[in-house]
Amino acid sequence: xxxLVESGGGLVQAGGSLRLSCAASGRxxxxxxxxxxRQAPGKEREFVAAITLSGHNTxxxxxxxxxxxxxxxxxxxxxxxQMNSLKxxxxxxxxxxxxxxxxSLEQMYDYWGQGTQVTVSS
Length: 122
Hints:
Layout: E1 2-7, E2 10-13, E3 18-26, E4 33-39, E5 46-51, E6 58-60, E7 68-73, E8 78-83, E9 92-99, E10 111-112, E11 116-121
Parallel strand pairs: 2-11
Antiparallel strand pairs: 1-3, 3-8, 4-5, 4-9, 5-6, 7-8, 9-10, 9-11
């Protein structure tokens, strides 16, 4: 079992930055791919970014390319999502997830955090 806890969310003005963290406990997170998803009010949860077990490969959704960077530190069992040039449309609850497969589909991930709210004001 893996437990995931997100942190780092908050309120920021458009153009600002936030860094989300996802701390894992239980089985070592280095055995799993990690990903970030988000869910805006009234919308379905959507994929944001994923990173492989080694951290050598990443994949971002087009809407965040050039602005968001996913990374991980397996020595700390922690994943990160650096978010720059934030826009009001980035407002959502952000969830981290881990699983044995790397990809953009929710069903690929077995473990989920509770989410952290990110609000971007215009």
